[in-house]
Design goal:
binds zinc ion, Urease, subunit C, domain 1, five-stranded parallel sheet, seven-stranded mixed sheet, TIM Barrel, alpha/beta, single chain, 14 helices
């Protein structure tokens, strides 16, 4: 280790000791007080012992500022520092059930240059311009992938009505959702259905998620999640409330609608395969296959909303790339999915969210008999997930925020729900990170690796022991 680094290390240990004393002082008076007069603030050492380190937080805009509809930056992620050394954290990335402790990560220009044991660090180069981050007691987690989201809608107990809000409102909602996603450690969101409308920003009539995706990519990726979007739901008439989806009368119209979605810029096609009659799929496997072939020829993917078994069977036989929800899979279908490599995107927390509405709303649907029926559906869905996991189906986690009742910063809830359904915490973490990345076909999504973008966040505790830890986000530092 070069002498310069050794000096930095000694200063760091002294700073750690001071931090321990500050923690004692904090224990005497645990009441948080705002401003610089707080005893904890006064005693705590500077976050970095390097005198040259820039004060990252000082430059951050106020997180409480409300941006105008679609022009202001989203202030959740830390501003960029050219070089950063995160020292002495733990690492959990869903590849194993073992937490790695004593891990240092060196980042330059938003790229992870090296990951080393903290007692065997490489020379990070000159101290000038290096921000040293004491990551002790925190865990590095890959930026998560919300594999089932609806950016333009806010969620809540009236989630379906909110899908009919006007386009200007939808864009404002998406801006807020971007901030919520980032602050919750979600780096990628896969939008699987947005209402169609005239985008007030670019004047184009198409799925509102597409203009949002494009503008966020232009405005700076550090401040916005990466988006892959399906455009608008494609349904058979009567499956969804009027005005929300594109309805096809027959298989030719379905194929034409799917082609149009891709021509308008969708990354994937979303078929809605729960028909007006729950026990009958609205299309045949052959009709689904025509759409899949067309999309695959254009390097796009197809996914299917299939809460019910009938639609899931048709979707898998038709060759879709993923099933959304999959609340009623059986062992035969799960085996078929595993063989074909069909992903399952879980959205179990939706039912858990509905159960809270029995107390927080006046809506009768969520009380009494309604609540028992929701509980029954949740139990069936948990069995379905367990069957899929046992069969080896790749499972990605989604909130269904917006198109369902969750909010955009609640992916941790789905990870908890997966563990309640029988997955190991590391498997559930993989569902919210690397498997979501594989579903997107993005090699940098949901992983922490040397040479990859510094898209990780830090939480307090061990998420391989308890998924609840994912709610305790300390710091989010996205790469540009
Ligand atoms: Zn959905």
């Amino acid at each position: 280790m070069p002498p310069d680094a050794d000096l930095t290390r000694r200063r760091f240990l002294l700073a750690s000791l001071a931090a321990a004393l500050a923690a004692c002082a904090d224990r005497i008076d645990p009441t948080p007080r705002p401003g610089p007069t707080s005893s904890a603030t006064a005693l705590a050492p500077a976050p970095s012992p390097s005198p040259a380190a820039p004060s990252a937080r000082a430059a951050a805009p106020s997180p409480s500022a409300t941006p105008p509809p679609s022009s202001a930056p989203v202030p959740a992620a830390e501003p960029p520092a050219t070089r950063r050394l995160y020292r002495d954290g733990a690492l959990a990335d869903g590849r194993s059930d073992r937490l790695e402790v004593g891990v240092s990560i060196y980042v330059e220009d938003g790229v992870i240059r090296w990951i080393r044991p903290s007692d065997g660090e490489e020379d990070p180069g000159p101290r000038r311009g290096l921000e040293l981050i004491d990551a002790s007691g925190a865990t590095f987690v890959p930026g998560m992938v919300d594999a089932h989201s609806h950016l333009t809608m806010p969620g809540g107990a009236h989630w379906i009505e909110r899908g009919l809000d006007n386009p200007a409102t939808a864009l404002r909602v998406a801006e807020r959702n971007a901030r919520l996603l980032t602050s919750a450690g979600v780096r990628w969101a896969r939008d699987v259905g947005a209402p169609r409308g005239v985008d007030p920003d670019d004047g184009r009539e198409r799925a509102l998620s597409l203009g949002i995706r494009d503008r966020w990519a232009e405005r700076g990726q550090r401040q916005f999640p990466h988006i892959r979007a399906a455009g608008t739901w494609l349904t058979r008439a009567g499956s969804l409330p009027a005005g929300l989806a594109i309805e096809a009368r027959d298989a030719d119209a379905l194929l034409a609608a799917a082609e149009r979605q891709l021509e308008e810029g969708s990354d994937l096609v979303k078929l809605y395969l729960d028909g007006p009659d729950a026990g009958t799929a609205p299309w045949s496997a052959a009709e689904v296959r025509r759409v899949v072939r067309m999309a695959h020829d254009r390097d796009a993917r197809v996914t299917a909303h299939a809460g019910r078994l009938a639609g899931a069977r048709v979707a898998v036989a038709g060759g879709v790339d993923a099933i959304e929800h999959g609340y009623e899979l059986d062992a035969d279908l799960a085996a078929d999915m595993a063989r074909r490599g069909t992903f399952l995107v879980s959205t179990l927390a939706v039912f858990r969210s509905w159960l809270t509405f029995g107390r927080t709303t006046r809506l009768g649907t969520f009380r009494g008999g309604g609540a028992s029926s929701i509980r029954g559906r949740l139990e069936a869905a948990e069995r379905s997930i367990a069957i899929a996991a046992r069969a080896g189906v790749p499972i990605a986690a989604g909130t269904d925020f917006g198109g369902g009742s969750l909010r955009a910063n609640q992916l941790a809830w789905e990870v908890e729900a997966l563990v309640a359904a029988g997955l190991e915490p590391f498997e559930a973490l993989a569902a919210a990170t690397r498997t979501g990345g594989a579903l997107l076909g993005e090699r940098n999504a949901g992983v922490i690796r040397e040479g990859g973008p510094a898209d990780f966040f830090l939480v307090h505790g061990d998420p391989l022991q308890s998924p609840r830890v994912l709610w305790r986000v300390w710091r989010v530092d996205w790469a540009d």
